[in-house]
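Quick one:
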Amino acid sequence: MFWFLVPPWKYKNALLYACMGLVFINTGLGQYGAAQIEFKSKLNEQNYKPILDYLKNNPYGVVLAPDDDVGYLVTIYTSGDLFWHTTALSFNMPAERLTEAALVYFYLNKKARYDFVEYTNELAQNKNDESYYKSLHRYLEGYLSGFEYTDYRLRLAADDAELGQKRIKITNELYQEYKKMTGSGVINILNQRGVNYIIWDKNKNPEWDLSFIKNLKEIVSYNGIFLYQI
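Output:
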């Protein structure tokens, strides 16, 4: 309809070429953006290469990775296994494993360790937070809420009052479990799961604190990324 409102043909031709130009510009920008994302991804892989090379060339081990992205690199380039990866939720996995993994990652975070309830409440309320902790918390809250997945997501987006009430109960229940997570408790879990290595990217996770793990041995480091052996 807009096309017929344009006066003489010369203006229509000009408009047509302008629209075509915008399409090409948009396509070019889209490709540029995708290339930038791919470049950053490749650069990130390069930063992890010394660590991945070590894991690849040394005996099989279980790795605690800082997030799912690094976890993928470990599984792609080495024969190592992971302490946790979100894809585990797609399989017949005991719910306790999700709780256990989430609480371990929260314990590594100094702020969460200092005040678990306040930290998880902030996570729940901050819609702009895209951290790994946020992801773990949502999966955990969604499961413990008892709502079907789609229903939970809809309630989450709508700031549903019933979900808000359940969140209070869930947070309190998790806190009771978290209080058991002393440093030795976390170490026991890592030992039970056969964890040999921890990857700490201090660029992405400056909030971590591994000082509670005694005899932690630095194996490889590169550009602020460290591989430790337990």
